[in-house]
Amino acid sequence: MSDLYEADFLLWSERQADLLRRIAAGERVNDQVDWENVVEEIESVGRSELRACTSLLQKALEHLLKVEAWPASREVPTWRSEAISFRQQAADAFTPSMRQHIDMDRLYRRALRTLPETIDGQVRLPLPETCDMTLDQLLAEEP
């Protein structure tokens, strides 16, 4: 079964899903399931969902920081709009168990590192060294 996993992941996943449905229906096909890879893929899905949510949170922070660092830029309305969109998408992707894995200080530091030194020829204004926003605030409907 591992050969199929390597050769044709889609077909492998379809077969594994079918086997799991058959097990759920009471059939005794446990010995046909590629358990090692099924377990790995389930764990991978969770990690992927967490990465997607943290990526959206970081993007939201980046855009909020741009607004703060370049308040006179003509791009401010766009950055605000995009920050709202990223926050909404993150809120939709967020699940309670993610809370223990999301490090706001780390996300904030990463967002800071992505900012350029200048935009439209303007040097950025000083920004706080630490994040002054909580996860709940970032995920909130209203900014």
Q: Can you walk through the features of this model?
A:
The chain is mainly alpha-helical. It has helices spanning 2-7, 9-24, 35-69, 76-93, 104-114, 135-139; strands spanning 118-119, 122-123. The chain is elongated, with a radius of gyration of 22 Å. The longest helix has 35 residues, at 35-69.
In spatial order, strands of the major sheet run 1-2
Compressed to H and E, one letter per element, the order equals: HHHHHEEH
Number of helices: 6
- Alpha-carbon Rg, integer: 22 Å
List segments where confidence is low: pLDDT < 50 over at least 5 consecutive residues: none
Helicity, as a percent range: 55-70%
In what range is the share of β-strand residues? Answer: under 5%
Shape assignment: elongated
List the helices and strands and how they pair.
Elements: H1 2-7, H2 9-24, H3 35-69, H4 76-93, H5 104-114, E1 118-119, E2 122-123, H6 135-139
Antiparallel strand pairs: 1-2
Helix pairs in contact: 3-4, 3-5
